[in-house]
Design brief:
six-stranded antiparallel beta sheet, 6 strands, alpha+beta, 190 residues
Length: 190
C-alpha cells in the first residue's frame, strides 16, 4: 500500500517562521534602504548588537506570543573594504525553514559627495537563505534585494556558499561592481 502524502503538513514544515522572515526580508531591509547612512553608522557603532536586538523585539510586537523567537546569536561583523566601502554581515538565529536567512550582508559603497557634507553611500542588501533540497543535503540560496525609485525587488542568484561569514562575504564581493580594492579584499578572505 502506498504511503499517504500530506501536502498541508509538508507546506507547514517548510513555511518560514514569521518573526525570522519579517526581520531579515522586511524590517532590516526597509531600514537599510530608507536610512542607509544612519544604518551604516549604527552597524559600525558599539551599540550595533543592542540596536539589532531592539529591531528584533520591535518585529515581535506585531506577532502572536507563539510566533515570537529569541534573538539568540544575533550580531553583526563588519569588514572594511578598500575605497571606503563597508560590508556588514548580520548573523541571524539559526534558520529552520526554507527562505529563512542564515545571514544578511549589507554592502555600504561610497558614492559622490559634496565637500563639507557627510558622505553619502550606495547600499546593496544580500541574504543567504536556507534553500530547499529534495535530499537531506544542506543547501543555501544567495539572494539580493534591490531598490529602484518605485520598488524593492528580490533577485535569486541560485545556489549559495556554505553559511559562514567568510564564504558569504566572498560571494557578495563577487556581485559588487568591479573594483581592484574589493577584489583584493575577497582574496584576503580566501
Amino acid at each position: 500500500m502506498a504511503e499517504e502524502f500530506d501536502l498541508e503538513q509538508l507546506l507547514a514544515q517548510n513555511r518560514p517562521r514569521q518573526h525570522h522572515y519579517t526581520f531579515a526580508h522586511y524590517a532590516l531591509c526597509s531600514m537599510t534602504f530608507h536610512l542607509r547612512n544612519q544604518m551604516r553608522q549604527m552597524l559600525l557603532s558599539s551599540h550595533a548588537t543592542t540596536f539589532l536586538h531592539g529591531l528584533w523585539n520591535h518585529v515581535a510586537q506585531n506577532l502572536d506570543a507563539d510566533d515570537i523567537l529569541p534573538a539568540d546569536d544575533l550580531f553583526v561583523h563588519n569588514e572594511f573594504l578598500g575605497a571606503g566601502g563597508i560590508l556588514s554581515i548580520v548573523v541571524l538565529p539559526q534558520p529552520q525553514c526554507t527562505t529563512e536567512a542564515h545571514m544578511v550582508g549589507i554592502a555600504f559603497l561610497p558614492s559622490a559627495t559634496t565637500p563639507g557634507q557627510d558622505p553619502d553611500c550606495d547600499v546593496r542588501y544580500f541574504t543567504l537563505e536556507k534553500g530547499f533540497s529534495d535530499t537531506d543535503a544542506p543547501r543555501t540560496t544567495l539572494c539580493e534585494w534591490r531598490r529602484t525609485d518605485d520598488d524593492i525587488s528580490h533577485l535569486n542568484y541560485g545556489d549559495g556558499p556554505a553559511p559562514t561569514a567568510t564564504t558569504f562575504a566572498r560571494a557578495i564581493l563577487s556581485h559588487l561592481p568591479q573594483s581592484s580594492s574589493w577584489q583584493d579584499e575577497a582574496e584576503k578572505l580566501s
